[in-house]
Amino acid sequence: MLSDRALRFGLKPVAFIVSLGPFFWLVWAAVTGNLSANPLSDLTNETGIWALRFLCISLAVTPLRRLSGWNGAIKFRRMTGLFAFFYASLHFLTYVIADRFAGLDFPNGIVSWTTVVNLGKAVWDDVYKRPFITIGFTALMSMVPLALTSTARMIRRLGGKRWNRLHKIVYGTAVLGVIHYLWLVKADTRRPLTYGAVVAVLLGLRVVWSRQKARRLVPAAVPARG
Amino acid sequence: MLIKKPADIPSSEITDKKAYLDRRQFLQAASGTAAVAAAGLLGAEELLYAATPAPHGRKLDGIRKSPLSTDEKPNKWEEITTYNNYYEFGIDKDSPSQTAHSLKPAPWTVSVDGECAKKGPMNFEDVIKGETLEDRIYRHRCVERWSMVIPWVGFPLANFIKRCEPTSKAKFVEFTTLSDPKQMPGLRNPVLNWPYVEGLRMDEAMHPLTIFVVGLYGEVIPNQDGAPLRLAVPWKYGFKHIKSIVKVKFVEKQPLNTWQESAANEYGFYANVNPAVDHPRWSQAQERRIGEFFMRKTLLFNGYGDQVASLYNGMDLRRNF
User: Chain A partners of B82 at a C-beta cutoff of 8 Å?
Assistant: First the structure.
């Protein structure tokens, strides 16, 4: 297995750069005109997909660690989780700019307090009115406390147990992310359902493991079954 | 009207076949490599927009201008031929531009059926026989909130319908798209209930704005845009503009169009562009004109209200969406 040093100074920086790959690719493609005829829609869609992918990857860390026995995997959990938040934030930002801001009227000019107020209202109205936006926004908001408590200091402050309990929120985030995607597509549900299946397996493993653990902890309470 | 034989095209108009093939090979290789990389990484979707604009093809001759055209600036050929919703060739916007080369638009037969006197198969050449082609520059509004201005070439559907001699029982016209898995790779996926079907009420079909389209930008229409024969009904959402039509049937009852069949609460039969009637999941009040940043306000009947609003007098547009 890899040494701690190799992990810290080798694999982790590499993973970091690779994780930024989609971001740089999107920027490059947008600047050079390599997106479709509707680049704003592409940017919104792609950042959303990458948020979901990183959510899946971060949820896969623990199962990977358990199934492979490679404990070093844990070193990537925070990074991949934060990248999920990074892409989800970009996703929200492109939506706010390309969908909400671009649809505003500017009675007092673009640079004005009215614009700020109207933009806030346009976002809030959409979040309130459109279920798939509501779900997506909720998913993003659910990641905020996780990102804020992702530092070693916050883990110490909260204590491992409480921190762990708090971070179970991410299970809900992933489910909301899949629903958000599912409610967005027109007819072809294969892609969102694929992500749904991935999330289901990753969460399902946890259910199975926690049951096994419960059984091991209180063997007397569980009658043996034939 | 005349479609010049290929030999009549000035050679300067034609992309050198080798260059064209090389280009395609290069793109296939490039996108193939990217796809393998992507599949290796995450196992599913494409990462690159490997859209290939349609090669410029045969020029159409004797096209007349039309007073029904808008004077708005048309979208680019590249935009119109790489950003397509044509699920028979894949669900991504750039899929048809990559896969529609497998469609064989000639020879082409349209079968005429139902409540009319002149039934039977009809060669494409007979469909356009005697028609004067017109440039019809129309606004095109997709139900997905994007829009384009497209310089179609076509002729009034009414002319064709008259030639079919519909009976008094013909209240609607039903159109069917080709459904041949050999030519259309997207048919493998049961995303919609193939073949794609659309329909119009007789008065809508007879309206002077409604046209059979055979060309784009003065050229024969590219495969990804619905070659060789498609519909344009500019006051309705894009999905009513059925492509690659192989069947026209005159019927008494309102046809069940494919998208309505797929999700009746979201897509209706009429599908008239209407900023006041939202899609259940998104607002239809605004649209993004492809190539622009700021959204435009969507116009009732896509701005063709003066011509078509009377078709729907006394009709509840909210219920008949």
Answer: 36-37
Q: How many residues does chain B have?
A: 321
CA–CA dist A86, A58 (Å, integer): 13
Q: Is the dihedral of CA B178, B182, B184, B190 positive or negative?
A: positive
CA distances (Å), B92 to each of B95, B96, B102, B182, B189, in order? 5, 8, 17, 19, 13
Alpha carbon of A211: minimum distance to chain B alpha carbons (Å) = 30
Say yes or no for a CB contact (<8 Å) between B47 and A25. yes
Of A25, A36, A132, nearest to B82 by CB-CB distance is A36
Per-residue pLDDT of chain A (226 residues; tens, 9 = 90+): 567 777 778 889 999 999 999 999 999 999 998 899 999 999 999 999 999 999 999 999 999 999 998 888 888 999 999 999 999 999 999 999 999 999 999 999 999 999 999 999 999 999 999 999 999 999 999 999 999 999 999 999 999 899 999 999 999 999 999 999 999 988 888 999 999 999 999 999 999 999 988 888 765 555 555 4
Judge whether A52 and A83 are in contact, CB under 8 Å: no
B20/A226 Cα distance (integer angstroms): 70
> Can you tell me the distance from the alpha carbon of B143 to that of B278, in angstroms, rounded to the nearest whole number?
10
Secondary element (H or E) of residue B214: strand B211-216
Collapsed DSSP state (helix, strand, coil) of residue B102: helix
For testing contact with chain B, the best of A42, A46, A54, A186 (most B CBs within 10 A): A186
| Rounded Cα distance, B137 and B37, in Å | 42
* Interface with chain A: mutation pick from B42, B75, B196, B265, highest number of A CBs within 10 Å: B42
| Residue B156 φ then ψ, to 5° | -60, 130
ipTM of model: 0.87
Element at B231 (helix H, strand E) = strand B230-232
Q: What is the distance in angstroms between the Cα of B294 and the nearest Cα belonging to chain A?
A: 4
Rounded CA-CA distance B188/B185 in Å is 6
Q: Decide: B202 and B189 in contact? Cβ < 8 Å.
A: no
Q: Do A102 and B294 touch (CB under 8 A)?
A: yes
Determine whether the interchain pair A36/B51 forms a contact, defined as Cβ–Cβ distance below 8 Å.
yes
Name residue, tokens 């926004």: A137
